[in-house]
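Q: What does the assembled structure look like for these inputs?
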Amino acid sequence: AQKITQTQPGMFVQEKEAVTLDCTYDTSDQSYGLFWYKQPSSGEMIFLIYQGSYDEQNATEGRYSLNFQKARKSANLVISASQLGDSAMYFCAMREGRRASYAGGTSYGKLTFGQGTILTVHP
Amino acid sequence: DADVTQTPRNRITKTGKRIMLECSQTKGHDRMYWYRQDPGLGLRLIYYSFDVKDINKGEISDGYSVSRQAQAKFSLSLESAIPNQTALYFCATSEPGSTDTQYFGPGTRLTVL
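A:
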């Protein structure tokens, strides 16, 4: 089963409007982390925002916020006041579990990615 | 200067050739990772290393090998390249902690003819 599902292959938004990119996840772990990355056409992967499974508040970073609904296992990215430079591919990713026995580390660290959503911002 | 660098940035090679992709980081992170990206498939983990003496296979390690030469350097090798290894390859680093956020290099675009 897919661990990370992004059901929107492509999204369109008007400049200055808000947009929500969907992400659902599947895990049996109690401790996990959820990440969003942006990949512009130039190809690099840019970290945007992080939400921990125990965080009670939704994460925010500037114009980015994460709508975390733990019971629904969803972690949607909200971009407010879209800009032309927001046009890119967006990936949701999850880091699962903890390997407490590993000296010096407290988590597995591995990320599982969704297939991505292409966002196009129109002027 | 970029914190995570990858060389080469682009490479075209032929089937059967041995290829090495290199990754260096100045972030001082212990953990390093290699991913590949194929269209429509997101990123998939090839290998990861939590420190110089620790190497682990990811979900798609067949046909690849790695070497962690130092804390700052992690190389990926394709012993005998094949066309379906044509992809965009990313190196990433992270530091264990509450978020363990991974930071990516710029990517290497590899084409195997």
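The interface with chain B takes residues 4, 33, 35, 37, 43-47, 50, 52, 91, 93, 95, 102, 104-107, 109-116 of chain A (CB under 8 Å).
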